[in-house]
Design brief:
By secondary structure, this protein is of the alpha/beta class. It is 22% helix and 26% strand. The chain starts with a strand and ends with a strand. It binds nickel (II) ion and manganese (II) ion (MN). Residues 51, 53-54, 139, 166, 189 line the site of manganese (II) ion (MN).
Length: 225
């Protein structure tokens, strides 16, 4: 399995069976993104919530690739109303897809479509492929149930925001890592815009001091498991 970072909250997972899964593909409008969505393919697109910096170029990519959306019910309905294929799920539910398992978790945030339509609850997502579980928290503040999430699904890789203002900042993100207890933490959702400026090295140092492993991914960097 490969995990590639496109900055902000956007990742591409290439599963062992060759399926490509995109999470929150925000590329064309991302000032820090050299890659444009025309070059990105996807079999599946997972959206954590409907904010513009997460839906991003999802519809453009799905139109070209015939991708299937995976999201909470109300957001899946929105995708279907636009003519796309979507698999409706909801928080707490898991489903086995041909590439692996997807389970949605709570996230404390908002979710509204670019047209101003309610898009259900925002979510985090746990993707399990083979023996590896990746927990993408989505946009969220810190919450104590992260401890329960980590107990129910031992997390190998945790992708979590550190940019503050809209989500956890560094101090809360350090606590989130302690609650979830992942094998590796990767900071996301920072430095895309001035309002979410943060120093990932500060986060790395702080969680390494507590015995956790951290990897700061540069744009386009890919790790393999
Ligand atoms: Ni958001
Ligand atoms: Mn966001």
């Amino acid at each position: 399995m490969k995990l590639k970072y496109f900055s902000h909250s956007a990742f591409q997972i290439t599963a062992n069976k060759g399926k490509i899964i995109l999470i929150d593909p925000f590329l064309d409008g991302n000032p820090t993104s050299p890659e444009k969505s025309d070059n990105i393919n996807a079999d599946y697109i997972i959206l954590t919530h409907a904010h513009g910096d997460h839906i991003g170029d999802a519809f453009k990519i799905a139109e070209r690739c015939g991708s299937t959306f995976i999201c909470v019910n109300e957001l899946a309905n929105y995708c279907q109303a636009k003519g796309f294929t979507a698999h409706n799920m909801h928080i707490g539910g898991g489903f086995n897809f041909d590439f692996g398992k997807v389970k949605f978790t709570i996230a404390h945030h908002g979710s509204i479509t670019p047209e101003g339509q309610y898009a259900g609850e925002p979510a985090g997502v746990i993707i399990t492929i083979g023996k590896i579980s990746i927990y993408h928290t989505g946009d969220t503040g810190l919450f104590y149930d992260m401890k329960l999430i980590g107990e129910m699904t031992p997390v190998d890789i945790m992708l979590l925001p550190i940019g503050d203002n809209f989500t956890m900042g560094i101090t809360d993100a350090v606590k989130a890592v302690e609650l979830v207890n992942p094998k590796l933490a990767i900071p996301i959702h920072f430095n895309t815009f001035p309002v979410i400026a943060a120093n990932p090295k500060e986060f790395k140092d702080k969680i390494e001091d507590k015995g956790f492993q951290c990897r700061i991914l540069n744009y386009g960097e890919e790790i393999e498991f």
